[in-house]
Amino acid sequence: MSLDFWPLDKFCSHNFERPLFRCDPLVPEGGDVLLHGPPESGKPQVIVTLAKAIAEGAYFLEQFPCQAGKVLIVQADTPTLTFQDRLRRLPVTKEARGNIATLIDDSGRFDILKAAQSKSKEILAAQEFAPNVVIFDSLRDIHLLDEADSRTPRMVYGACRFLFPSAALLYMHHDRKKVSIGQRHRDEEASGTGAWRNSVDFSWHLERYYDHEKPFQHFATLG
């Protein structure tokens, strides 16, 4: 636990050295973000595009300015060769390539709670990389607990924060298989307990829309 006591005037006048946002205003510096959406809505494309923008200190989606920094992608969902192909196609500048690293587990048994207690060379290497942003792909694949249990998010988020205490953490997540129209707002369709969404600073919802004239293409909106 880390506690600081601040009188109001001193707190409001203090000049914190770190920027307020790593990607303004979507990714708070040192904060937590949940990105969820239905299958094939483009979530992997969103996270690699964000990683590129932060690595280069450029604009995300051509409108959100990013502070340059290091990005670690913890990949436990996409097959290794598929993920490799996506990164090979990512047009990252030569100067920024050293700002992106990956931690990959394709066994289907990755457990972030065990990893938080691990001193493995892979975990240590990821920590020594000192990422400013860590992206977890995907949330349901980094733990072995019941995602519908309201106690699970605190344990999973806590383990991730223990590993990377000062980084901004972004979790890629899935929507429920059944859309519960009339029961909750569409932006609250994240799978599992609502505590996944309620325990983060920002929640993004990616939705897809199809053009009937172009049946093999879709548009996505980020809300």
Helices and strands in order, then pairings?
Elements: H1 8-13, E1 21-23, E2 27-28, E3 32-37, H2 43-56, E4 59-60, E5 64-65, E6 71-75, H3 80-88, E7 100-104, H4 112-116, H5 121-128, E8 133-137, H6 152-163, E9 168-174, H7 195-198, E10 202-211, E11 214-222
Parallel strand pairs: 3-9, 3-10, 6-7, 6-8, 8-9
Antiparallel strand pairs: 1-2, 4-5, 10-11
What does this structure look like?
The protein is α/β, with parallel strands linked by helices and 223 residues long. The chain is 26% helix and 25% strand. The chain contains 7 helices and 11 strands. The model has no long low-confidence stretch (mean pLDDT 88).
Question: Termini, distance in Å?
Answer: 33 Å
Sketch the topology as an H/E string, one letter per element: HEEEHEEEHEHHEHEHEE
Cα gyration radius (Å): 18 Å
Structural class of the secondary structure composition?
A: alpha/beta
Low-confidence stretches: none
Q: Name the helicity range.
A: 25-40%
Strand order of the largest sheet: 7-6-8-9-3-10-11
Number of strands: 11
Number of helices: 7
Report the sheet with the most strands, covering strand number, pairing sense and barrel closure.
7 strands, mixed
* 3D shape: globular
- Overall pLDDT level: 88
Proportion in β-strands? 25-35%
Which tags fit this structure?
two-stranded antiparallel ribbon; 25% strand; seven-stranded mixed β-sheet; 223 residues; globular; single chain; alpha/beta
Give a nutshell description of this structure.
The chain has 223 residues and is α/β, with parallel strands linked by helices. The protein has helices at 8-13, 43-56, 80-88, 112-116, 121-128, 152-163, 195-198; strands at 21-23, 27-28, 32-37, 59-60, 64-65, 71-75, 100-104, 133-137, 168-174, 202-211, 214-222.
